[in-house]
User: Fold NAD-dependent epimerase/dehydratase domain-containing protein from Lupinus angustifolius.
Amino acid sequence: MACVRAGTVKRLIYTASVVSASPLKDDQSGFNDFMDETCWTPLNDSLAYLSLDDFHKTLAEKHVLRYGKNENGEGLEVVTLPCGLVGGDTLQSFTPGSVGVLISQVTHNENAFKSLEFLENLLGKIPIVHVDDVCEAHIFCIENDSISGRYFCASSYISSKDIEDHYALHYPEFNVKQGNVDVLKKDIKWSSTKLCDKGFVYKYDTKMILDDSINCARRVGHI
Assistant:
């Protein structure tokens, strides 16, 4: 509403959460076999493990998208960027919460690990992205001449077992916590290429995201 009242704002870029994009079927009977921008987290009482904040993330993103230009050209240019679990380094003097979730199998932080399991249960797997790529994606959406709508911002789509295996292989000095999510029943394909189709290029792959998250925690004395 502030953008509309200002009358000078051309484009609104809204940083959303991938929590709003579950591939769960509306009737909770299982998952769709793909995950892309058409997926929305079902908003019904059967998802008892969703918090009120999680519901609000979905409602807020849908509300923002309603302000996009209509067929008469009225409205704002609206872009929403549902971001995956953000890893990488930080300028802060402490480990950011999202990085804490990514390294929870190393730190054995139960609350953070529950968040990791929550994402996997909700989304089938865990979309992850490096903080530098998140920043670059926002700049890309500012500078692109023709972009609007919903664009996932995540470079990898992995399981908690994938994360566990990476840490166990590359960081044998840690006692890596083992998860118990049944990923075999969730063979969901990451089908989102919209942002890359527009010309955006991710600079960080899975290994780089996980390694930078470990390096971040080490630098601030978390591990």
User: Anything to note?
Assistant: Residues 52-65 form the longest helix (14 residues). The chain has one domain: 2-219.
